[in-house]
Amino acid sequence: MMNFDIPDNLMEYLQELDHFIEQEILPLQWQDDNNRFFDHRREDARTDWERGGLPNEDWEALLQEAKRRADAAGHFRFAAPAEYGGRNGSNLEMAVIREHLATRGLGLHNDLQNEHSIVGNNVGLLLMIHYGTAAQKAQWIEDLSESRRGFTAGITETAHGSDATHMETTAARDGDIWTINGEKSWNTGIHKASHILTIARTSGSAGDASGLTAFLVPTDSPGFKVEEMLWTFNMPTDHGRVSFTDVKVSDSCVFGGEGNALQVVQHFFNENRIRQAASSLGAAQFCINESVSYAQQRAPFGKPLSRNQGIQFPLVELQTQAEMLRALVHKTAWQMDTYGAFSVSDKVSMCNLVANRLCCDAADQAMQVHGGLGYSRHTPFEHIYRHHRRYRITEGTEEIQKRRVAGYLFGFMDRTAPKGVNTTA
Ligand SMILES: Cc1cc2nc3c(=O)[nH]c(=O)nc-3n(C[C@H](O)[C@H](O)[C@H](O)COP(=O)(O)OP(=O)(O)OC[C@H]3O[C@@H](n4cnc5c(N)ncnc54)[C@H](O)[C@@H]3O)c2cc1C
Fold it and tell me: Alpha-carbon Rg of the chain, whole angstroms?
């Protein structure tokens, strides 16, 4: 018989996480005025305006301490294989956990802006496990596992985002040495990253899905330069625009094999998109829950707001969508675990497309229900809106998600091999 219950062991794990948050994370959030990073002062407290809008050092140190505690308690690497200290977390488990953490609202347990969480969405580690050479693994696995060090994704260019196969950065080989020239933009985490995973054309011509190669380029390489930091809707910024002028790297920096970059990229996005969808669903549910609760206690014109169908019905619509989406997210994540991630890439895109929109709609409605308070920074809805609005563009835009669904619907993409569709972060 089919069973839609969340398995008992996963329900117990959610309780264990809640307990850990109460015992170890909330006390840290409330210590030393750390709550300034989450209350109405959040954007200002997080941003180092003196350093051009970069994340404040204290803010990043606090996130690091939360991760350290989560790793010591055995939560941070939940998704990693057991041999790397993880718990072999499945896509379904990660989806349920990420929804649960986001449903709790803003906090040090699961900050939106940095995609920080006590249960790490450590896709860099998963890629390293899948695609790293023995030498790269030896160099990276421990640091990535503990989030001590990371690499930024260098896919997008100023002139090319959705159309990754047209990117203009090149790498030319001479013996064991590659020379990279070009530029990349929107490299998240570049201010701290020791390396940039740079996708460059090594053969073929613009538009070819093959002939693109990924390189792990050290950011202290001569010829590499951070040109500027890009300010966004949600500050601080850790997104840079960078250039490569005759940057030399050895063959040992090739990641995932020559010509295989699109597969690496697609793998990254497929994993990330379902988790992002689950987070957006959780954040949407938080906005709905807060609105229902506020409508029950706010009483303009002498009766609770919740008695008005004008207040009820938009929330009913949102809750209906959330229920439908939850079923699709669970089913899709389960199918990824059971049949392989690429067999249901179209469903992953559907989940992502609907979830990110739903979250923006729910945050917008929450602002409306909360009136002036909803527009203020004393409630979290503006922050939720600003962050999740980004997901409608990054990780593949809405249109690119639709393009993938269309590819499966009309049969111009197959369900096994990643094709030359950009899906950039
Ligand atoms: C906060 C943030 C963080 C990011 N982090 C990273 C990162 O770490 N690494 C990285 O490499 N990139 C990163 N990006 C870049 C991001 O992946 C791209 O912005 C995204 O892929 C869209 O590319 P684009 O901006 O060039 O838009 P374009 O590709 O120029 O698209 C412009 C518009 O046209 C639409 N469009 C494009 N093609 C079609 C089509 N065929 N049919 C219909 N509509 C179409 C798009 O959907 C979009 O609405 C980040 C971006 C942001 C904002």
Answer: 22
Instruction: Name the closest-CA residue to atom 36, ligand 1.
Output: 399
The model's confidence at residue 425, banded by pLDDT at 50, 70 and 90, is very low
pLDDT at position 420 over 80:
no
What would the mean pLDDT of 53-65 be, rounded to a whole number? 96
Would the CB of 156 count as within 6 Å of ligand 1? yes
**Residue-averaged pLDDT of the chain:** 94
Asked if residue 123 has its Cβ within 6 Å of ligand 1, the reply is no
Task: Judge if 323 and 402 occupy the same domain.
Answer: yes
User: pTM (2 decimals)?
Assistant: 0.95
Per-residue pLDDT tens over the stretch 160-174:
999 999 999 999 999
| Residues of the domain holding 379 | 262-409
Ligand 1 pocket, 198 CB below 6 A?
no
- Please give the pLDDT value at position 419: 45
Beta carbon of 114 within 6 Å of any ligand 1 atom: no
Please give the tally of structural domains in the chain: 3
Between helices 8-20 and 91-103, what is the axis angle to 10°? 40
